[in-house]
Each structure stands twice: as structure tokens, then as C-alpha cells.
Design brief:
This protein is an alpha+beta fold and about 475 residues long. It is built from ten helices and 17 strands. The longest helix has 24 residues. The site of flavin-adenine dinucleotide has 26 residues, from strand 3, helix 5, strand 13 and helix 10. InterPro entries: FAD-dep_OxRdtase_2_FAD-bd, FAD-oxidoreductase_2, FAD/NAD-bd_sf, Succ_DH/fumarate_Rdtase_cat_sf. It comes from Penicillium freii.
Length: about 475
């Protein structure tokens, strides 16, 4: 039986009834006691707010003079905004990052009466021998410490969301290429591609997308090797390179640090670091830009900050942690400094837009945000490559996220796939924020299709 219509999409119905919002206005004299001025949660959930409700941190002003128009727009919180775009084009954020998101999800599934099995690995898909439809999963469960037992979970439909193969050194080397087995893993150690293999083995699932592609960032070289850290989480990411330069172990620049906005470069910059000798690089800034670095990524508590009163001192300190040629490092920074264009006085340094402040005459240019690095004190941070997820996955019907069979080229009845396991979304690069957008869009489609199918099959309860 299909689910009763009234229970299907209650949120949509609520949203239609909601009166149109008035533009946000900040009162002339804020009254701290008034509830009216408190931030209201966005309808997506308590932890998710439109970014226009966020106060911007104080930033130092550089170069001297009034900040450019785009900065004024970003800073002036008294301007009534209905929607504004933030740095890199993001318009939405989750409160407390991934940790907050998972807390919200757990609360939502608990409220919906969903059973969650921790320490349980799916090992196979159960199929109906006549129709070929997926009717459940086999799993190994470890609910009391050290005691593993095989279980089967019957279901009217199964949605696969077990991640890509980023945590498997063997599969990384096989699909992404040489050297990738040595990349650090940013997230869970359990996304080993096992479920991709099981889907191919048990139901001949068809694959899709860019199997040699992945999301990979500049990542703290001191971070754990095989997985991220649940507490530190995203803070190992080091995405401040557009504000400075990156130099490899031999003291050479190797990438245009300013070829686009951070949100369009950070997911491919890790690949460039991985290609360097020793798979490491040093990010370098001077006194002009250090204060613009993100606190969450560069404060002393989360990263080893290498500081020097001169470029020479900085190079010597970097040599203590792996810089092979400090002399060349200093020369390289000086060559870079000499190539920074003064311009005609019209261009202003502005990290909120592609400002066109570029180097001139270098084999490896810097196309935007190029300021000289000559004002003490200097700062460097050692980075390596941190893989987030892989792009290759399973082929699906985009309307329902139903998995496609390699054998029949038709949908596998009762099987859906979302998130990193879904292939064909990303090729070569990745715009910031789109992983969770993909998960939201296809998660909803898969959830709706799976619920409809499970409702029809009458198998809503586990056997
Ligand atoms: C540090 C970090 C920061 C990120 N920041 C952002 C961001 O700011 N914006 C954004 O959009 N995206 C971000 N992402 C990417 C985003 O988190 C992922 O795209 C998203 O979580 C993918 O969802 P998923 O369900 O496919 O995989 P996951 O969220 O990785 O979940 C997969 C789950 O499957 C489990 N699993 C694996 N194999 C099995 C098995 N055989 N049986 C049972 N369970 C299994 C794993 O343990 C894991 O819990 C970030 C990722 C990381 C690691």
C-alpha cells in the first residue's frame, strides 16, 4: 500500500502555509533583553542558519585606506539583507559543522523511530531469486565488545550510503594512480569501497563517473595517517594558500595559488601537493596576511606554526621539519616578490573577489591576490595531501537514485544509492559545499522512492 497522502511530505505542506517573510532588519538601537532580536533558527533545523544572520569577525585592513566595496558589503551588518552570498558563493552553513549535522540527523531518526545499528558492517545484499529485487542486507554485528555475529535485515528497499573508496590504500592506488596509497585520509577509515564491490558482486550494479578523480585538500602534515580525527575534524584542512604562496621541499613554487576562488581550488590543490617530492609543501605568509587566515585552521592549538623574523630564519626552521633546500626557498620567495606587479594603482588587494593582482614573468604565476612576502614576522605551515572522497561510483536513475544494472541496463528493483557512492556527479573538480548538497538532493529522492516501494511491498518491518 502506498503511504497515506497526508503523511507524505508534511514539511512541504507547512512551508506552503507559512506567510511570506519580511526582509531582515536590524533595529537602530538593539535591546539586549528583547527576544525579537535573537537569531531565529532556519526552517531546515536548529543548527542550520542562513549565513546572513552571522556576524563577521573583525579583520585587519590591508592595504591602507577604506576597504573595497565588496568588503564593505560583507562587513556592514546593518544593511538589511534578504539573501547575500558569502566568500566563495556559499549561502548556507551548518551550525557546529559535521558534528552538529550528525547530531541533528541522529535526533531526527530517533524521533522517527528508526533503529540505528552501530558497529555493524553490511557484507552482502539479499535478493529475491525470482524477481532479482533487493529484499534486505546481510551484516556482521558487534554489539557486545569482541562478539561478532552474522545478522540479516529484511527490508522493502535498501538505500546504499556507505561512502567511496578513499580509505582503501589499495583501491586508491589502483584507480587514482601511483602515490595515492600514501595520501592521508580526512574522514572515516571505514569508507573502503567495500559496498561498491558488494553491489557489483551481488546485483551487477553498473558503475559511473570519474574513477580516477577525487576531492583532495592541503592537509596538516602532522595529522593522523589513515583517518581523520573526530575531535579536530575539518581543522586539519589548510586552505589559506590564496593569501600567500606554496613552496615544495626543494624550495620551488609549483602551483598558481590564486587561479580561482578558494572554493573552486581547495579540492584539487591536494593533488598538486601529492605530486611534489615527499608529498609535502610549505604554505608561507608574511605579516600582511597572517591575520586573515582562518582561526579554525591556523591557530596555534591545531597546527605547528613555523615562525621567523626573517625569510632566512623561516627557511632554517622549515629545514628542521623537512625543507631540503632552505637557500633555494629564500631565493624563490625573493623572485616571487620581485615579480609582484605594482599595477597602475587601480587594482586593490581584495580576497573577496578575483582582484587581478598578479605576478609578472614567472614560470609559475600567481593570478590573483599577489602581495610581496617581505614584511616580518613570517609564518609557514607544512602540509600534505588529504583525500576527502572519491568521485567514481554507481550509475543511478537521477529521478529516484535507483541503482542501474550492468546486465539489463535497467533499475535494480529495491536498490538505491546516494552520497559518495553515487557516480557521475563530479569530474576533475568540486565546488565547495556540493557534497552535502548532492547528499540532500539524492538522499531525498532515494528516500521518497524507497519509502514508496517499501510501502507497496508491505515490508516496512524488519523480519
Ligand atoms: C573533514 C571533512 C569535511 C567536509 N566538509 C564538507 C563541507 O563543508 N561541505 C560539504 O558539502 N561536504 C563536506 N564534506 C564531504 C561530506 O562530508 C561527504 O560528501 C558526505 O558526508 C558523504 O556522505 P555519505 O553518506 O556518502 O558518506 P559518509 O558520510 O562518509 O558515510 C558513510 C558511512 O558508511 C559507513 N560504512 C562504510 N562501509 C560500510 C559497510 N560495509 N557497512 C555499513 N556501513 C558502512 C561508514 O562508516 C560511514 O559512517 C567533508 C568531508 C570531510 C571528511
Amino acid at each position: 500500500m502506498p503511504l497515506p497522502q497526508k503523511n507524505r511530505y508534511p514539511r512541504n505542506r507547512q512551508r506552503q502555509r507559512r506567510p511570506q517573510r519580511r526582509p531582515l532588519r536590524r533595529p537602530n538601537k538593539p535591546n539586549p533583553k528583547s527576544n525579537r532580536n535573537r537569531q531565529k533558527p532556519h526552517h531546515l533545523g536548529r543548527r542550520q542558519h542562513l549565513l546572513h544572520s552571522r556576524r563577521l569577525p573583525h579583520r585587519p585592513q590591508w592595504p591602507p585606506g577604506p576597504p573595497p566595496a565588496s568588503q564593505q558589503h560583507r562587513r556592514n551588518t546593518s544593511i538589511p539583507h534578504r539573501h547575500i552570498k558569502f566568500w566563495g558563493g556559499l549561502a548556507l552553513k551548518t551550525q557546529d559543522g559535521g558534528k552538529g549535522l550528525v547530531e541533528d540527523e541522529l535526533r531526527a531518526v530517533k524521533n522517527a523511530g528508526v533503529d540505528v545499528f552501530f558497529d555493524t558492517a553490511a557484507t552482502g545484499l539479499l535478493t529475491d531469486p525470482t524477481s532479482g529485487a533487493v529484499i534486505g542486507v546481510e551484516a556482521v554485528n558487534n554489539d557486545s565488545v569482541g562478539v561478532y555475529k552474522k545478522i540479516t535485515i529484511a527490508a522493502g528497499a535498501v538505500v546504499l550510503a556507505a561512502g567511496g573508496f578513499e580509505a582503501s590504500p589499495q583501491l586508491r592506488a589502483q584507480w587514482l594512480g601511483p602515490g595515492w596509497d600514501c595520501a592521508r585520509v580526512r574522514g572515516t577509515p571505514y569508507n573502503t569501497g567495500e559496498m561498491l564491490r558488494i553491489a557489483q558482486r551481488d546485483v551487477s550494479a553498473k558503475t559511473a563517473g570519474d574513477w580516477s578523480g577525487c576531492h583532495c585538500v592541503a592537509w596538516d602534515a602532522d595529522a593522523p595517517v589513515d583517518s581523520g580525527d573526530r575531535e579536530v575534524s575539518n581543522e586539519f584542512t589548510k586552505s589559506g594558500y590564496p593569501l600567500g604562496i606554496m613552496v615544495n621541499r626543494d624550495g620551488e613554487r609549483f602551483v598558481d595559488e590564486g587561479f580561482d576562488m578558494r572554493n573552486y581550488t581547495y579540492a584539487i590543490i591536494g593533488r598538486r601537493v601529492l605530486q611534489q617530492p615527499g608529498q609535502v609543501a610549505f604554505q608561507v605568509w608574511d605579516a600582511r596576511t597572517v591575520a586573515w587566515l582562518r582561526e579554525e585552521e591556523y591557530r596555534g592549538k591545531v597546527v605547528r606554526r613555523i615562525e621567523g623574523a626573517s625569510l632566512e630564519e623561516l627557511a632554517e626552521k622549515c629545514a628542521e621539519v623537512g625543507l631540503a633546500d632552505p637557500g633555494r626557498f629564500v631565493e624563490c620567495v625573493k623572485e616571487y616578490n620581485a615579480s609582484v606587479e605594482d599595477g597602475d594603482g587601480q587594482k586593490r588587494w581584495d580576497p573577496a573577489v578575483k582582484d587581478g593582482l598578479a605576478t609578472k614573468g614567472l614560470a609559475v604565476p600567481k593570478s590573483n591576490w599577489a602581495l610581496p612576502i617581505d614584511k616580518a614576522p613570517f609564518l609557514a605551515v607544512k602540509v600534505t595531501a588529504g583525500i576527502t572522497f572519491t568521485f567514481g561510483g554507481l550509475a543511478v536513475n537521477p529521478e529516484t537514485a535507483a541503482v542501474i544494472s550492468e546486465t539489463t541496463n535497467d533499475e535494480v528493483p529495491g536498490l538505491y544509492c546516494v552520497g559518495e557512492m553515487l557516480g557521475g556527479i563530479f569530474y576533475d573538480n568540486y565546488p565547495g559545499g556540493s557534497g552535502l548538497t548532492s547528499g540532500t538532493v539524492f538522499g531525498r529522492r532515494a528516500g521518497r522512492a524507497a519509502a514508496e516501494r517499501a510501502g507497496k511491498s508491505g515490508r516496512l518491518e524488519p523480519l
